[in-house]
């Protein structure tokens, strides 16, 4: 029996051994598959993490670059923004290959594409070198677009006494022009965009084309005069502020006119007062207005260095440029601005005139310098309206100088109410749905000055389209330009399109 069944039993034993071997092979194979699956899952997870962060960094770099395609440091800016969001060597990745292409820079639209490629270490490809090496390639791309919103914008720029210090007036011009460049993007016009320019000091110049707004000077109280009193020159265009509350409203000229502003001569009884026209310091120390005219030759000086001028139009800045669609007109108006070192500066005055350039109640009133009427290609009532105020931060009245409110002893604007009057105008403007950006500039701006201008500015979330801070303080030209570019960003639509 043993001989009969021995071979089958051996077969069974050998079968069982083979079965165990097969199971071992199957287990080994399954383990290999499991390990490869784990490595693959790890690879996929790392690749997903890398791609997600890479796309975020690419989006951020593209958005930042589109804010100013013409920046001379554009490539550097893109790299810095990208590195801040995708640190070099993240997950062992290689140095990013960043490629930028300006897709469109025509008209009011800027479109830019940023594409980025990295190589990420891959355990799977490391095991399968023959299939392509140790790295997997990951790419991301973003295309962004910026276009200016259609709006009516008033640039209200302080040209007063403190702006002549330390090249602040030059910085103000460059900042305002940077904003215009940002909005117009090399175009002469942008659909729906209109800009006015309102230079102000302690007075505002309405422009000679608007002389019909001026009242007969002989009807004015407190120093009544006649047109002939400007001889041997002529009225330049500066006006007195209207009596309160009309100095804080957008009532048109037909409801309340404006008195022409004359800076009377310091000549007393045919003779100059103490000192003379070149001895300015003696006038300031004695509280006098320092405006002796005409001189011994019967002349006045209203051209050349402002510090040396004298005459009935002393300290009268350049005229208001009403709303214009033309980049060249508004840019030139900003470029002409200079500081006027006499009289102080009243932000309430600049703000209310900025408001009047935007007000629908003044439609048909404003004329360009060539006497052509200001005309918009859409109803003014439906447009977004914005005022950008640039100030040295201080509402001040210098000595007894003539201003839009006369002299301090006229009592039209007490010196301790300058900030309150500014805030009253700000509140009236904001109540009309107009957005106010306020920028203070210079080293003398106190905490209380900053607080007043913060209160003047609109809240950050006051407009659904213009998201961001509305008050900025700058101590340097670089800060000032950055503030105006930030305003331009808020007045532009910036979005990812692909």
Question: Please, could you describe this protein's structure?
Answer:
The protein is α/β, with parallel strands linked by helices. It folds into three domains: 2-147, no CATH class; 151-264 and 313-496, von Willebrand factor, type A domain (Rossmann fold); 275-311, no CATH class. The protein is 33% helix and 17% strand. The protein contains ten helices and 14 strands. It has a six-stranded mixed sheet with strand order 8-5-4-10-12-13, sandwiched between helices. A four-stranded antiparallel sheet has the order 1-2-3-14. α4 links the parallel β4 (151-158) and β5. α4 runs parallel beside α10 and α7 runs parallel beside α8. The longest helix is centred in the first third of the chain and has 65 residues, at 2-66. 38% of the residues are buried. The model is unreliable at 1-6 and 268-288 (pLDDT under 50).
DSSP summary, beta strand count = 14
Morphology: elongated
Could you name the CATH homologous superfamily of the largest domain?
Answer: von Willebrand factor, type A domain
The fraction of residues assigned to DSSP E strands is: 15-25%
**CATH-defined architecture of the largest domain:** 3-Layer(aba) Sandwich
CATH class of the largest domain: Alpha Beta
Estimate nothing, just give the exact number of structural domains: 3
Strand order of the largest sheet: 8-5-4-10-12-13
Q: Pairing-aware structural class of the strands and helices?
A: alpha/beta
DSSP summary: helix tally: 10
């Amino acid at each position: 029996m043993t001989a009969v069944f021995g071979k089958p039993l051996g077969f069974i034993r050998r079968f069982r051994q083979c079965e165990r071997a097969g199971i071992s092979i199957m287990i080994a194979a399954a383990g290999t598959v499991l390990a490869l699956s784990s490595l693959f899952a790890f690879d996929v997870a790392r690749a997903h993490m890398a791609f997600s962060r890479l796309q975020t960094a690419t989006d951020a770099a593209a958005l930042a670059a589109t804010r100013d395609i013409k920046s001379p440091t554009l490539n550097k800016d893109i790299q810095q923004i990208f590195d801040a969001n995708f640190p070099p060597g993240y997950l062992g990745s290689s140095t990013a290959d960043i490629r930028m292409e300006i897709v469109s820079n025509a008209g009011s639209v800027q479109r830019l594409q940023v594409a980025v490629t990295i190589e990420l270490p891959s355990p799977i490809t490391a095991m399968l070198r023959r299939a392509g090496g140790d790295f997997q390639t990951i790419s991301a791309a973003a295309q962004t677009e910026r276009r200016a919103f259609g709006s009516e914008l008033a640039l209200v720029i302080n040209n007063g006494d403190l702006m002549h210090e330390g090249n602040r007036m030059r910085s103000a011009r460059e900042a305002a022009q940077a904003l215009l460049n940002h909005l117009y993007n090399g175009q002469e016009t942008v659909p729906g965009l209109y800009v006015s320019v309102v230079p102000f000091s302690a007075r505002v110049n309405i422009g000679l084309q608007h002389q019909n707004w001026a009242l007969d000077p002989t009807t004015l109280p407190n120093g009544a005069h006649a047109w002939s009193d400007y001889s041997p020159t002529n009225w330049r265009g500066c006006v007195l502020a209207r009596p309160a509350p009309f100095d804080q409203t957008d009532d048109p000229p037909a409801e309340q006119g404006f008195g022409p502003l004359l800076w009377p001569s310091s000549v007393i009884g045919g003779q100059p007062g103490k000192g003379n026209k070149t001895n300015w310091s003696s006038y300031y120390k004695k509280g006098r207005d320092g405006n002796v005219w005409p001189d011994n030759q019967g002349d006045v000086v209203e051209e050349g260095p402002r510090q040396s001028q004298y005459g009935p139009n002393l300290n009268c800045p350049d005229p208001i440029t009403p709303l214009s669609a033309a980049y060249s007109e508004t840019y030139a108006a900003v470029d002409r601005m200079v500081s006027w070192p006499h009289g102080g500066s009243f932000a309430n005055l600049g703000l209310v005139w900025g408001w009047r350039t935007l007000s629908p109640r003044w439609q048909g009133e404003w004329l360009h310098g060539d006497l052509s009427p200001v005309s918009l290609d859409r109803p003014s009532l439906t447009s977004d309206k914005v005022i950008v105020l640039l100030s040295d931060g201080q509402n001040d009245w210098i000595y007894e100088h003539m201003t839009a409110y006369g002299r301090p002893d006229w009592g039209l604007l007490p010196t301790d109410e300058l900030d309150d009057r500014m805030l009253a105008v700000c509140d009236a403007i904001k109540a009309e749905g107009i957005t106010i950006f306020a920028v203070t500039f210079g080293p003398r701006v106190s905490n209380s000055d900053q607080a007043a201008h913060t209160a003047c500015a609109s809240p950050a979330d006051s407009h659904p389209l213009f998201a961001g801070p509305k008050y900025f303080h700058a101590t340097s030209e670089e800060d000032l330009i950055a503030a105006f570019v930030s305003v331009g960003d808020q007045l532009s639509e910036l979005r990812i399109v692909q």
